Amino acid sequence: MLATPVIVVNYKAYPQATGPAAVKLTEALERVAHRAGASVAVAPGLVDLRHVAEATKLPCLAQHCDPIMPGAGTGHVTVEAIAAAGAKGSLLNHAERKLGLEVTQASVDRLRHVGLWSLVCAGNVAASRAAAALHPDMVAVEPPELIGGTVSVTTADPLIVSAAVRAVKDLAPDVRVLCGAGVKAGKDVRRALELGADGVLLASGVAAVAEPEKALLDLLEGLR
Predict the structure, then answer these.
(1) pLDDT at 67
(2) Annotated catalytic, 211?
(3) Among the four given CATH numbers 3.40.30.10, 3.90.1720.10, 1.10.10.920, 3.20.20.70, the one describing domain 6-221
(4) Looking at 34, 94, 194, 221, which residue is catalytic?
(5) Cα dist. 145→139, 174, 209 in Å?
(6) pTM of the entire structure?
């Protein structure tokens, strides 16, 4: 399992983190993480997952998977497929790839069955509590209105982070809680940890900038 505190970088579908650029970005992030002795994981696009996983020792998460069994399922991505590609787990229910609770639960169960981690995204405190009831490995609270913005959730709405942490830990103490949306600097990471989070989930602040190594170094300052 990932050591905490952890920084998970979601590559989304940014051109700066797609194709050969995804491998180059990951190699840069691994250099920084290795020097700092930090716990960093990446979530490349599904098409790039195998290439990235083969090029790095950083844990790789799929951005999504489907709970279907291997077999007939055109266009779906099975848990077995992401495992074969080198993934250690998967994001689920991101605001840009919403799932219902039933599908999310089935996906968490399938990931656990295959021995992979699950990171369930939630948009508010109530959704974080509902996600915790599914007993994933991690829950990430990300208010959708702040995703991709310039203001971190830790500044715009710190109470949602602390309340989500309490809601999850009261129900499932072993589930780790990350926070995301607008996280771009070391001060955002530091504040997330002060609010009780076990780490952060972020994207554009690292995956879509001109100097990702510098950006990650700044974020890691928040872990000191």
Answers:
(1) 97
(2) no
(3) 3.20.20.70
(4) 94
(5) 18, 28, 21
(6) 0.95
